[in-house]
Predict the 3D structure of the following.
Amino acid sequence: MNDIILLKLGEIVLKGLNRKSFEQKLMGNIRRRLAPLGNFRVYCLQSTVYVEGEEGADMDAAFEAMQQVFGVISLSRAAPCEKNKEAIARLAIEYLRDEMESARSFKVESKRSDKAFPMTSIELSQYVGGELADAYPDTAVDVHDPELTVHIEVRDLAAYVHAAPVPGAGGMPVGSNGVAVTLLSGGIDSPVSTYMIAKRGVRLIPVHFFSFPYTSQQAKDKVVELGRQLTAYCGRMTMEVVPFTHIQEEIRDKCPEEYFTLIMRRFMMRIAQHIAEANGAKAIVTGENLGQVASQTMEAMASTQAVTHLPVLQPLIGMDKEEIITIARKIGTFDTSILPYEDCCTVFTPRHPRTRPQVSEVEAAESALDVDTLVQEAIQGIERISLDHE
Ligand code: ATP
Ligand code: MG
């Protein structure tokens, strides 16, 4: 008997986004994520997506993968059977053996979307509950506070038996809410900010600024690895690696030291905006966090954002480090993030950075630079790296 995965859809909040396009996006994302795991049939009925594995499909891996797909609020593995009460009870007894033997108490909950089924939900629950109680006399029926809830659904094509659902990744399907550029460093924060905006249905283009030889090949490999890890949630992405060395050297040679970081961050924003415009992206995502470092005061962020007309999305702005780390661990990027390679922000760090700059001061401080030429030169040198889940 081949079991299946049932995925319940999450929120559909935007008025312009109708259910059909939400479902289409979600199913496309699901199919792409399942492709390396075997052959699957994926279809959507009554706000539930069904994933059926064909011969040889890795259902365990598929179930794990589906827990990382945005737009799914909960999911369960379930077994199908014919739509008659005896078949349903037989299946429940067989399919839930382990769960029934380890639980002290249980109840049955039935749902019937096929209204032609000859029993009410309550009658079906009572019948299957009785059969299960006979088969597992050590497991008590408890309709108020059971350890195990056995779910039965009578749907159009079949009846399904499944145990308690597990939570899905939530959010909205990636691609249902536009495209943004995300600034990805090798730190703890930016993979988490990327994940959080992807969760809102945004397809992301990771951009990394690379200052070889001040930052090493290993530092770049680490960011590529973080990007690859994020594809579990974000889907396929193409990372843009921007050569940043010349810009940093120019800043070091021609600008007052206390403004180094601010000027560097303004270049990041300008280049990110270029990449956004070339790719139809409508925002820039960063991992900034209020007060965490000198460049993350309100004044510093104002001077950084002054060079772009795009909204800068900072999903971590009000979080504590511990909260960010909890998410980083959950999404599996933390261990890579703490590998000890330097980032371009730590190259030429000013000894006494300006923390409350006026925008006009920063503009004056960078006036010795040929900004447009430097930006163009960096853009010419971009390297694109495809990232996919294996
Ligand atoms: P993170 O942990 O994400 O590195 P951080 O706390 O170290 O963040 P900063 O180094 O000030 O903070 O960087 C703030 C944000 O700027 C980062 O979260 C990231 O979005 C972006 N950023 C910093 N360095 C780079 C880089 N080399 N390439 C791309 N984006 C970067
Ligand atoms: Mg950093």
In short: Residues 185, 187, 343, 345 surround magnesium ion (ligand 2) (CB under 6 Å). The mean pLDDT is 93. The CA atoms of residues 296 and 372 lie 25 Å apart. The two ends are 28 Å apart (CA to CA).
